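Question (not urgent): is this output format expected?
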Amino acid sequence: MDPIQKISGRFWGFAYLRPRTEKVIRAKLLAAGIFHYLPMIPKARMHHSTKIITEIPMIPGYIFLCIDDVERQNLKRQEAKFVQIELLREEYYENILIQELNSLRQCELLARQEPIRINPDIITGDKVLVTSGALAGLVTDVVKRDDKHDMIIVNITILNKHIEYPIAAETLKKITV
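Got this back:
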């Protein structure tokens, strides 16, 4: 990926969008030849025992644009999905945004290199609720994670016996106290 840079006659800024319209707007901007950046991160979920990896916006509701005033007016007039478009006309603030966007790009690249974890906020020792399957409704403790197989090992206690049982990570919900 080439670094994001200042473009003569245009200003970098951001657009606040209606919910869940980022990808649609990105496609329209691409078709119109408008410079833009939508940082995306991979997200994993399970579907019928298959790990599905999709991309979601890193900053939901926002897309970054490099446009002139005429393009800004046309976008606001022609596309109802734009709630607000702010351009950074002062060079100092625009340069800060460009630096931040380039840093964000580095984070985006790093996110693609790390293994994707389902329910990454669940860690050893957490209390969890099983939300589906044969054990639905069970509240138990996490013993460890098995991210290679997208499983979380939980402790089930029956008649003073402890059983470690693997459960699909997407079927667990962390209980916060």
